[in-house]
Amino acid sequence: MRTYIAPIGYDSTRVTRPILSQGIERDTHIDLLIPTTTTDDSRGAQAIDDVRRMVEQIEPNVDVGTTEVPHDDFEAAIEACGSLIDDANGEVVVVFGGGARDIFLPLTVAALSRTHQIHASYQFSDIDGEVRERSLPNLTANAPAQTRSTLEAISTLEEPVSLTAVTDAVDVSKSTITRHVKVLERQGLVTSETHGKTKVVELTTTGRLLLSRTS
Question: Where is the Csa3 N-terminal domain (predicted)?
């Protein structure tokens, strides 16, 4: 089961193209976010109808609903978007690129505070119309104190860097570095892979942001 959360404006393709890139299955739910307003918006209603028609042609059992997000209350909008993510069923996919900016920013804030709940996120480009997957950084991640020197060493060496090089830079045992890297990986601060007999590691965007805000 999968739930898509997507702001929608006048252009339905900003929603349909990212969804189609992932495919539509039975029991998929699509939640279209619209601003809370009393303004008669026939173009917006047409875009919503376009999404429904497209989905029904592919899979009739998909549920397409709308949720009003308060456009004039930033904190309430963040809370509303966060509740949608919290209450979503199955894999949560957030689609960025459509809808009012008044919704886009609260949704972004809510998503960045809940990256562990989000399966994937996609962006529709204003420049070339391409759909690209975006890996959201975890802004709440932290590095345990004992691993901080290892994280800083990785950031100063040319990446990807071998565990041996990190060991030499920090001047502790390789087994300790190995343990640190496992902890940092669980926090999403680094990634590692094995090349032959050599294990290499590099910072993630989450790791770089953590170092930049705590340096």
Answer: 2-117
- Count, in order, helices (H) and strands (E) of the chain: 8, 9
- Of the candidates 96, 97, 88, 137, which has an alpha carbon nearest to the alpha carbon of residue 117? 88
What 3-state DSSP class applies to 176?
helix
Q: Which pLDDT tens digit goes with each residue over 184-198? A: 999 999 999 998 888
CATH number of this structure's domain 2-133, picked from the four choices 3.30.1330.60, 3.40.50.11700, 3.40.50.1860, 1.10.760.10: 3.40.50.11700
Fold of 145-214: Arc Repressor Mutant, subunit A (1.10.10)
Does position 37 have pLDDT exceeding 80, yes or no?
no
Read off the pLDDT band of 22 (50, 70, 90): confident
The tokens for 194 are 């094995």
Spatial distance between the Cα atoms of 136 and 95, rounded to a whole number of angstroms: 12
